[in-house]
Amino acid sequence: MSITLTTLKKLSAPPGTLRSLITGYAEEMSRKGYSENTIEGRIWCVLRFVEFAEERNIIKPQDVTASLVERYAKHLTNYRRPKNGRLLSRGSRITFLSAVREYFRHLYRKNIILFNPASEVELPKQNRSLPRNIFSVEEAERLMNIPDIHDRTGLRDRAILELLYSTGMRRFEVSRLYISDVDFSKGIIHIREGKGRKDRVIPVGKRAVFWIEEYLKKSRPKFVDPKLPVTDAMFLGRYGEHLRPQSISLVVRNCRKAAGVTKEGAAHIFRHTTATMMLENGADVRFVQELLGHESLDTTKIYTRVAITKLKEVHERTHPAEMKRNPEAIS
Fold first, then answer.
1. Assuming Cys at both sites, which of 252, 288, 303, 311 could form a disulfide with 266, CB separation 3.0 to 4.6 Å?
2. Is pTM, for the whole model, over 0.85?
3. What is the mean pLDDT of residues 80-107?
4. What does the alpha-carbon distance between residue 97 and residue 72 come to, in Å, rounded to a whole number?
């Protein structure tokens, strides 16, 4: 199991406390095969609850009541993000509460507590909302042209943008991509342990392949630090380290702002854009499901509600009332 140093410091506390027992929860998730990203995310979700409890002088799990968990759920409902003042989405609240519930379930199974105080907490109903922002073709192309391709970082960033646009890959999938995962001659990428630790093979466009090859030939060697162990990682950071998902989001965000695109979002907006554009241009929804790595077709079908352009064209072409272009005036 690999947990960042920052997170480990936050888990430092006297034995038997809510904070210190998170380490055992993380170890159990690791034994069960959860990905490092999932473990890290759940730890931070539980830490938010622990901080809420500690502010009320509740340090030990035995002192946590169902009432406290309900108060925390209400706190999340009214909580506003410091950066933009927005309320947490339903999905975020579900994520936070689910992590807390699973944490106390773990403590109950280990006989650390006699009952699970979070077992009865009601999760918000999850509505499958439409993607809030999607790039137009013109906006996407503006982003592509922002990085300075004569600079080592700019050429790397162009390759990242092209890859996101071509494939709709998640940012952590791009971060964990290795050179050997790409078959350049066939235009295929092998994504290892995507969401749910599932592998999949997806196509990548010729234009993206071109820019990735340019980056590998002209830019990546300039990032390699001979003092570090040799790595096959596709994208490297400033000091030769494996580029983190947060850095990929920063690349997109900075280019979006520089391109004058006001739609909020970072790497994931390319995922929404790729799916919607392909559906609008006639792609089968099951193909898009496979491309994005969605376990459920229902998740992919969200994009069919956004891809209204194609539906409107079909409607105009096939509906009897629309096919009759010059209806007689009603007298």
1. 252
2. no
3. 88
4. 9
Domain with CATH 1.10.150.130 in the chain: 5-109
Q: What share of the chain is helix, strand, coil (3-state, %, to 5)?
A: 55, 5, 40
What lies within 8 Å, CB to CB, of 170 at 6+ separation is 194, 195, 267, 268, 271, 293
More confident residue, 113 or 295: 113
Look at domain 137-315 and name its CATH class. mainly alpha
Mean pLDDT of the 83-107 span: 89
Mean pLDDT value across residues 74-86: 85
Q: Which residues are catalytic?
A: 170, 195, 268, 271, 294, 303
Give 306: exposed, middle or buried? Use CB within 10 Å, 0-12, 13-18, 19+.
middle
Q: Is the pLDDT score of 83 beyond 80?
A: no
Residues of the chain with CATH 1.10.443.10: 137-315
| Dist CA 327 CA 320 (whole Å) | 11
Q: What is the pLDDT of residue 85?
A: 79
First to last CA, the chain: 78
Superfamily of domain 5-109: Tyrosine recombinase, N-terminal domain (1.10.150.130)
Closest CA to 195 of 224, 228, 169, 222: 169
| Greatest C-alpha distance within the chain | 86
Helix (H, G, I), strand (E, B) or coil at 321: helix
